[in-house]
Amino acid sequence: MKGIAVTTAETSKEALELAKKVPFDLVILDLDLGGENGMHLLETFRATYPQRPVIMFTSLGFDVEVVKEARTKGAAACLSKTESLDTLVLAVQRALQ
Q1: pLDDT tens by residue, the chain, 97 residues
Q2: Domains, the chain
């Protein structure tokens, strides 16, 4: 997709600092963020930036309970890292609509 700029963070603290400095339209958030629980950061992003969609991204595979928790906490989608890039792009497009 053209016109997309990506910024990365390795910790929740770094992600929150970047969000204050760099304009963003969407967050793709790992469930395991440098040993931290990404669900906590999901809640923080949804509370601080309620209009910005968050897609949870995990290498833990598809877990119904994890997906349910992420959706309950406001995630626009919950994807496994094993899914295709096309699936991620489609989730991003849907979340931004």
Answers
A1: 556 788 899 888 999 999 999 889 999 999 888 778 889 999 999 999 999 999 998 886 667 888 899 999 999 999 988 888 899 889 999 999 8
A2: 12-96 (3.40.50.2300)
Bridge partner list, 77: 55
Residue of 69, 76, 80, 81 lying closest to 91 (CA atoms): 76
- How many angstroms separate the CA atoms of 65 and 69, rounded? 6
* Residues ≥6 apart with Cβ < 8 Å to 75: 42, 54, 55, 56
pTM: 0.88
Q: List the beta strands (DSSP E) in the chain.
A: 27-30, 32-33, 36-37, 54-58, 77-80
Closest CA to 15 of 40, 95, 3, 82: 40
